[in-house]
Amino acid sequence: MGLTVVKKDIDYIRATLDPEAVHTLLQKCDEGFVPSLSQTMNLKQYAQKLSDFAQFVIALDNGSEAGFVAYYLNDEGHFIYVPLIWVSSEYQKNGIGQQLIAQLSELSLMGYSSIRLEVLKSNTGACHFYLKENFKIAEERDSKWLMSKNI
Ligand SMILES: CC(C)(COP(=O)(O)OP(=O)(O)OC[C@H]1O[C@@H](n2cnc3c(N)ncnc32)[C@H](O)[C@@H]1OP(=O)(O)O)[C@@H](O)C(=O)NCCC(=O)NCCS
């Protein structure tokens, strides 16, 4: 038996976060990305940027972060851009990622018509996840795919 947590009550909250809170979240998820976030960016500076411009949906299990999605609202283009989505390894494959995307899809009620993101082609797990979630490849950008989903 692995460490997989059986799906249970997860709360989804929308939030903006101060830079310290974002930094703590980035440190928590850092090693969940390949390469790790801290290998490719300065986490403190990135935390400041996300705090200034992004909003979050956070999946909480008993008050502890099981995952989150960060998103920017592009009002001119009427789309939502996702710079980061992460589910803690012990919670993966329980539908939390799907729920995080579903929470963003609800923003269609506010006039947003698509969700966009970039994913490394080498991140085959995430690519499978996005295709399952009905994202389509919109563009090839060197080592990445730009993906888009109409909502
Ligand atoms: C990508 C990620 C957010 C998916 O979250 P998750 O909670 O495990 O996804 P879900 O359980 O909601 O999966 C939804 C569907 O995608 C599929 N899926 C999820 N991860 C998958 C994987 N690694 N390989 C193949 N399919 C996958 C699931 O099987 C499920 O399909 P189903 O409904 O037919 O069973 C999570 O794996 C993660 O945080 N990865 C590390 C960080 C990362 O790479 N983020 C993306 C950067 S662009």
| CATH fold description of the domain at 11-112 | Aminopeptidase
Helical content class = 25-40%
Strand fraction equals 25-35%
Strand-pairing-aware structural class: alpha+beta
Number of strands: 7
Tell me the radius of gyration: 15 Å
Strand order of the largest sheet: 1-2-3-4-5-7-6
Low-confidence runs of at least 5 consecutive residues: none
Kindly report how far apart the N and C termini lie: 37 Å
What is the H level of CATH, i.e. the homologous superfamily of the domain at 11-112?
Answer: Gcn5-related N-acetyltransferase (GNAT)
Bound molecules: coenzyme A
Major beta sheet summary: 7 strands, mixed
CATH architecture of the domain at 11-112: 3-Layer(aba) Sandwich
Query: According to CATH, what is the class of the domain at 11-112?
Result: Alpha Beta
The sequence of SSEs as H and E is: EHHHEEEHEHEE
The rough form would be described as: globular
Number of DSSP helical runs: 5
Please give a quick description of this structure.
The chain is of the alpha+beta class. The chain has helices at 19-29, 37-40, 43-53, 96-105, 124-132; strands spanning 11-15, 55-61, 64-74, 79-87, 114-120, 136-141, 144-150.
Describe this structure in words.
The protein is α+β, with helices and mostly antiparallel strands and 151 residues long. It has a domain of 102 residues: 3-Layer(aba) Sandwich (Aminopeptidase), CATH 3.40.630.30. The protein is built from five helices and seven strands, in the order βαααβββαβαββ. The protein has a seven-stranded mixed β-sheet. A hairpin with a 2-residue loop joins strand 6 and strand 7. Helix 1 packs across helix 3. The longest helix has 11 residues. The radius of gyration is 15 Å and the shape is globular. The termini are far apart. It binds coenzyme A. Coenzyme A binds next to strand 4, helix 4 and helix 5.
